[in-house]
Specification:
By secondary structure, the chain is mostly helical. It has three helices and no strands. Pfam families: DUF948.
């Protein structure tokens, strides 16, 4: 009988252990099912995010390509601006040289004209022209149109009737060149 009681106790303990083991296995299975469901949800979310990221990357790639094309389109424009700037710098330098040359030429002609006027006036001063003549000390009588020396009126008429100096033609050419460059 003791043996039968021992076998019965062993059988009951195996049955209790088996029932506990079955419950543990069921709980493990439900936990695994929950984990599997969570894993499926994560995979779906990752798949959706992956699609969104791929769309974003392709959109950024397209945007980068468009920006590159626009920059390539702007490069010739900037090159043109650079060329226009260099051309304007050269034109300015040329205009500066031309104006310096003209100023020098005009100064030389003015000096020569002044020397000729002094040479013409010098014999009149030496001979002592009497009455109403222009003298170097009286600037009002040397002004054009003043009742002074008769030769001043003739010189004024000759200056007014003379054709315009040649530099005016060059000035017209320069103005026309600038107008053409602006177009």
């Amino acid at each position: 009988m003791l043996l039968e009681i021992a076998v019965l106790i062993i059988a009951l303990s195996v049955a209790v252990l088996t029932a506990a083991f079955v419950q543990t296995l069921r709980q493990a299975r439900t936990s695994l099912e929950r984990a599997s469901e969570a894993l499926r949800e994560v995979q779906d979310a990752v798949r959706i995010w992956k699609d969104d990221v791929e769309k974003l990357v392709s959109s950024l790639s397209g945007l980068t390509e468009r920006a590159g094309r626009q920059l390539d389109a702007v490069d010739p424009l900037m090159s043109s601006f650079r060329n226009v700037g260099e051309t304007l710098r050269e034109i300015t330098a040329a205009a500066h040289e031309v104006s310096a040359g003209w100023a020098s030429l005009l100064k030389t002609k003015a000096d020569k004209a002044a020397a000729r006027m002094e040479a013409k006036a010098a014999p009149g001063e030496r001979s002592g022209i009497a009455g109403g003549g222009a003298s170097r000390s009286d600037p009002a009588s040397a002004m054009p149109g003043s009742p002074g020396l008769g030769t001043d009126r003739h010189a004024l008429r000759n200056r007014q009737a003379a054709p315009p100096p040649g530099w005016l033609d060059w000035l017209d050419v320069a103005v026309q060149t600038v107008r053409l460059l602006r177009r």
